């Protein structure tokens, strides 16, 4: 399993951003191997983090190569004041299962 974390600081969003964002979200959800996503905001520094979970690196790469994603990447300076992407392989996920998180929970190591 893999995760892709998109951390960013915003400028002003417009109608073009919202339309493109919705199209990319729909494209991601349609890719076999997309497992889900969650978002976090840090009020102390204003950064937003979107974490996407993928069954395989190939599934993630399908989104990376998608034409609407490439369009957004090329235009990111219109809407973002900075960004960073972190691609990670998920080695383990564990906990007490009370959160109902989208990743399966294994027994604590």
Give the amount of beta strand, in percent. Answer: 25-35%
Could you tell me the mean pLDDT?
90
The structure class reads alpha+beta
| CATH topology tier name | Alpha-Beta Plaits
Second CATH tier, the architecture: 2-Layer Sandwich
Q: Separation of termini?
A: 18 Å
Neighbour order of strands in the largest sheet: 2-3-1-4
Low-confidence stretches are: none
Domains (count):
1
CATH class group: Alpha Beta
Count, helices: 3
The total of beta strands comes to 4
Keywords: Monooxygenase, Oxidoreductase
Protein name: Antibiotic biosynthesis monooxygenase
InterPro entries: Dimeric_a/b-barrel (IPR011008)
Organism: Roseateles agri
SSE blueprint and pairings:
Blueprint: E1 2-10, H1 15-30, E2 34-42, E3 47-54, H2 57-64, H3 67-75, E4 80-89
Helix pairs in contact: 1-3
Describe this structure in words.
This protein has a single domain, classed as 2-Layer Sandwich (Alpha-Beta Plaits), CATH 3.30.70. It has helices at 15-30, 57-64, 67-75; strands at residues 2-10, 34-42, 47-54, 80-89. Strand 2 (34-42) and strand 3 (47-54) form a beta hairpin. The two termini are 18 Å apart. It is an alpha+beta fold and 109 residues long. Helix 1 (15-30) packs antiparallel against helix 3 (67-75). It is built from three helices and four strands; from the N terminus they run E-H-E-E-H-H-E. It has a four-stranded antiparallel sheet. GO terms for molecular function: monooxygenase activity. InterPro entries: Dimeric_a/b-barrel. It comes from Roseateles agri. This is Antibiotic biosynthesis monooxygenase. Keywords: Monooxygenase, Oxidoreductase.
